Fold each of these.
Amino acid sequence: MNRTPTNMTQHGFTLVELLVVIAVLAVVLAFSLPSFNDFTKSQYLTQAAEQVLGDLRSAQSRAQNGVVDGSKECWGLVMVAGQAYYKVGSVDCSLACASFDAAQLGSSRTLNFSGVVQASNNAGVIFSKISGLPKCPIVFPATLTLQLDASTTKSVKIEAGGNMYVQ
């Protein structure tokens, strides 16, 4: 007695079909990895620019609210070209813009950029007490520029009226 059905159909994939699918997926993955790496790097840059903007707003808010650190009543932020960090802290309001650098910051905190981001220009800004308007730099709009490489940059712009944005 033959117990095997005569109209039995087979379900599943052949080895050749599975190998073709794996090959197609490998090709798609090989083409998408460089784009994903570029996207990841640009996200580091965007995140760093948003971090600087947030800290600028915090310094501006501290100046507007009259937060005093010893005799230093203004607040500022300094970036140094080629460095992967910046400093935020209190500063003497009588300080001349030309001499403003990280050494003049009172109790400052150093913040590191994520990934391979670094500042591409020397820049600093001081916010005046109570008004919160930028006292330094002298030329507006001021630009704090961050870079991954020579062709990939993001800028944080500061206008004379105190408005700030990422560009």
Amino acid sequence: MVSLRFLGSRSLLVSLTAALLSGLAACGAQSGDGGAGGSGSVGAGSGAGAGMGSGSGMSGAPGASGAPTGSAGTGSGNAGSGPAGGAPSSAGAGGAPSAGGAGGATCSGVTPWVLGTTASQVSHGGKRYTCKVAGWCASTAPAYEPGVGFAWQDAWQDQGSCSAGGGGGATGSGGTTGSGGATGGGGATGSAGATGVSCALDSVLGETTFKSWFPKRNGFYTYANMCKAIVKYPPFATTGDTTAKKREVAAFFANVGRETGMLMYIDQINKDPANGNYWGRGPLQITWDYNYKACGTAIGENLLGQPSLVSTDGAITWETALWFWMTNSGGTGKTPHQAIVDGSFGGTIKAINGSLECKGPNEGATERIAHYNAFTQALGVDPGTSLICW
């Protein structure tokens, strides 16, 4: 016969056992701690040590401007059986590297300038211009060519450069996966690349050839400064086919060779008192006050007040020669540039010094022709047949 005391103790033991089992089940159902990338949810197990939840962090997405951070991952605990709670989730992966920014470009959609244009805004020589006087803007006279003709400022307003910007920088490196759910560091934004610098003469002439043509030249005359100067006169040595481009380079330097003793002289040797302070200077020996004034206006320098700039500034000296070559016809109807593009080297002599050298055979014209023949041969191009000017 079982005593009532024993039955009461047994009942108490059963109750304690049930409570203990319930507590163990609750402990077994706890999930693992999630990392910063994600957290496991509570496992819904039953029985002693039931449920093993685990959280898994998702990789972080890249942040803007190349500085990504991992976003918090999400995950839920999977119900199951086992004595332990869920394991911690893995850390969120670092952000993917950002690409460097690409360089921008301006003047997109602006009408390129041509003679006789009716556009109110044009691009020319790497710059943008707005028309001030429609009649002059639409003129077919080279004098109104934006940035080039000696009277272009009467017609156009310079709105600044529209050259393309530098390319994007290198891609930033991605962040490494963090431990314990830490977010990865994002790649740095690449810095913009520098704009490449090139010379329009490189594909036609090149510095090595230039130096070989003028081995005894004055150090004042440099290829680098010539490259700076031609930026203001983009049609120079870029008009027509390859033959026309090479002929123009040969013709220009043939005349320069005659005018300066193969670039040995900067100022005129035998100065004419009638010229006052405006004697011949530079590669094409610009002379007379009216030429200094017109040229200074065209290139943006006070040459009338400071004519010595032509002898002391290495870029300005080339600009004066290119101004004369591209804009002055000497009363012949064609500039030296137009004459040589049309295939006439004799026309360049006529525009530069026709009153003295185009009345019959003479030393000056003969020397110019000899230089031209030598230079075209060096460039591998036929000189053409129109060499004399009389």
Amino acid sequence: MNYSFDEVKKQWINKLNNMAQGDTFNLYIDNPFCVHKCEYCVYTPYVTKVNSPIFKKYYSDFMPRELEKYKDIIGMRVPDSVYFGGGTAGLVDCKQMKKIFEQIPNFKNIKCKIYENHPNFLTKEKVDLMIEYGFKYISIGIQTFNEEILRKQNRMVPEYTELRELIKHAQDNGIVVNCDILPFIEDGNMKGLKQFEEDIKKMEELLSPDSITIYPKYQELMEPIDSEYDQSKATEIDEKNYDLIVNLRRSLKKISRRSKLYSISHENLVNLEREKIMECVRGNYYLIKIDKEKFEESKVYFSSSIPRQPATQNTLAIGGLLERKTYSYHGKGFCYYNNVDENFNIEYECGGN
């Protein structure tokens, strides 16, 4: 079943006119492109060169057209957050970034602005632009410092000295900088634990971000979860990875005790009771060197998909391409996917609500 745009617009107008206390309104701006498909990635980017014909058309025609369509809706209420993700959101150049920023109503008044970045595509010009437009949070996908593993995973190796300077420049201008690490990236088993501990040590020495987000890549665990996900299969996978999770949590406790900079954001994340572990097998972990309140302010938006979106979060997703169907929703209620073909025709596909 598909919705017409008029139906989608009507639903958004009704929702924004009847927001409950505590509800948030968030924008998600999608860059569906990657220059390589990393082997570990469970998502569906469109692989192409920067400034290929389809890349150019997406940003010169499709994205401006979609932002214009939603202008009245976005203008009804200043969004609580705007999140630029992908794909590789950092492929966009400064001119394209600024054009998008300027087309979003009340952009400078949005308190929480978040941008995902690939370490090889972050530049001083981009950081300066994000400073100018008041971004609060930059997230950089490091994944591992092991160059051999990165190459096996079809991922480019960064130049860390230059990256550290860019991180410090952002931090000096009030932007919280996060870096991601993927434990068990290579084999999804216990052998990855030593590499993980080495990665955290190098992160502290080489880059020193404000926070480190740890996305465990357990065996079979990272396949996408959607409305048709088999819960019995999920439980089976959780059980299979139980020992791995216990040892990761023990490792995080050890790292936190040893580190002069980082502590675990929430101690309950490393609780070793079986019941607590099984409650949040798919949870992420955070090491932080800033105070918890500042960290929480930077995590206003929970990037999420069916069925894990918060009930109080209302997210309008703009963009997407082919298999990369971005997902808009009103809490646990009305939801739809952007189904965009190669000619940038778009259908609004019912999301199972």
